[in-house]
Structures are given as C-alpha cells and as structure tokens.
Amino acid sequence: MAIVDEARTGAETRLAATPRSPAAIPRRGRLLAARRISAGISRRVVGILVLLAAWEVLPRVGAVDRVFLPPFSEVADEWVVLLHGGDLWEHTSASLTRAASGFALAILIALPLGLLIGWFRLVDQFLNSVLEVFRNTAPLALLPVFVLIFGLGETSKIAIIVYACVWPLLLNTISGVRGVDPLLVKSARSMGLSSLRLFQKVILPAAVPTIFTGIRLAGAYAILVLVAAELVGAKAGLGYLINYAQSNFAIPEMYAGIITISAIGLIINQGLLALERRFTRWRVAPNA
C-alpha cells in the first residue's frame, strides 16, 4: 500500500507540475470574465426587482400616499395603454429625434475642436478665455436666451441640447489628448512618423477612453436637458407628456413617461459602453 501511495503521490505531483496548454489560459480567462459579467448583471437585476417590489408594496400598505405614488402595477397598466394607443411612441420619437440631433451636432462640433485645442497650444491660448466664460454657465440658465433667439420651435430645443452636450465632450477630448504619455509621442517621432500618422496611430487611440467618457456624459446630458427644453412650447415629447400629465393630475401617466425616459437613458448608456469596448479592445482588461 505504501508503494501504491507513493506512486499516486508522484503522479499527482508530475500532473501539477505539467504546464497548462496555451489555449487553456485564454479560455479560463474568458470563462472568468463571463462569470463576472453574469454576476454583475444578476446583481443589477436583483436591485431593480427589489426597487419595483418596494414601489408596489409601499403604496398598498399605506406607507406612502398612493394618490401621489400609485403602485407600480397601475403605472405599468397605464404604460401599456399609452403604448397601444400610439401616444407613447409619438412622444418618444419626438424626444429621440431632438436628443439624437443635438447629440450628433455636439459631437461634430466638440470632437474636432477638442482635438485642436488639446494638440495645438496656440489654439488653446486663443480660445481658453472664451471657453472658460461659457463652460461655467449652466445650460438651463440660458434656455430663455435660446428661446428668444431661435423661437419656440425645434431649433431652440436642439440648440440647448447641443450647448449642454458640447462641454463634457470638449473637456474630455482636450484632457484625453493632453494626457497621452509623452514617451509614446517621442518614440513615435523617433521612428519617423509624420504628424498626421502620429495623430492617427498614437494620439487618437490613447485618447479614446477619455473621449468616450465625455460621450457618455454628453448622452446623459442630452436626456436631462431634453426634458427641461420640452417644458417650453412643445406639443410632443416625453417632457411635454410628463408636464401635461402632472398638470391634469394624471399621475400614473406621468410616471409612465418618467419610466420611459429613464429606460431610454439606460439603453443609451449601455449602448455607448458597448461601443466603447468595441473601440478599446487593445486595452488590457484588469484581472484577466
């Protein structure tokens, strides 16, 4: 028996000392990453379910006044009624058109300007004082100005969204360009890269994570400012729906609009996160 035990122990030792195949290590890393992602999703789902359960129970037991906070099931029923009636889609499409237009225009304005300011010191010195004045002015404080200049139509609403989205995009783009490791730039120059190739191969890839942070912030700002913009002179949109329902004391309808705009914000953020992961695959994932 002793001889058998020694042989078994020796075999186990040799097996443990045998190096894993190269294919097993990436596979194990992918499995661990998948488990972390599934665990994170499960925790988020549980948190949302707990919130919805509290929303359903507290008004029914009298902990809160159900006139002002009806149970979630009543809000969900109203949401379905609005969806089947076509009103919800009409207001949602109007809001998405305004938000997407303002967001896209902000990207077209802020990204090139941020790259120029971050890379060229002369442009920074020329525009810095002007930008400092406007960046410290709250977008909603300028809403009456936009209404006076552009009127009550779509132009003023899109313009205020553009103004709100430009600043996180611009500031994060400037920060991303200036935060590139100088050693990378020196190494690329020593290899004879032209300024255009240097910008394309070194500056932009290194600045992408910070730029995407600005893009995600701008997406959130687009939704937040959109609601306020639709309170003035709008005839359609989720902000208009929420305000109209509140004025007519249609509380479940009001909460249905709030839930819809919150869901849109969540979907936009998750979509931008997926896009960021697509463009930053070169980054080494932590704990991989």
In a nutshell, what does this entry contain?
With 288 residues, the chain is mostly helical. The chain is 80% helix and 0% strand.
Overview of this structure, please?
Helices cover 80% and strands 0% of the residues. The chain has helices at residues 2-17, 24-60, 72-85, 87-119, 121-135, 143-150, 154-178, 182-190, 195-229, 238-247, 251-279. α4 packs across α5 (121-135), α4 packs antiparallel against α9 and α6 packs across α7 (154-178). It is globular. Mean pLDDT is 79; it is low at 1-9, 11-18, 21-25 and 284-288.
Kindly state the number of beta strands. 0
What's the number of helices? 11
Taken as a percent bin, the fraction of beta residues is under 5%
Taking the sheet with the most strands, its summary is:
none
SS-based structural class?
A: mainly alpha
Features:
disordered N terminus; mainly alpha; 80% helix; 288 residues; 11 helices; disordered C terminus
Chain-wise SSE layout:
Blueprint: H1 2-17, H2 24-60, H3 72-85, H4 87-119, H5 121-135, H6 143-150, H7 154-178, H8 182-190, H9 195-229, H10 238-247, H11 251-279
Helix pairs in contact: 3-11, 4-5, 4-7, 4-9, 4-10, 6-7, 7-9, 8-9, 9-11, 10-11
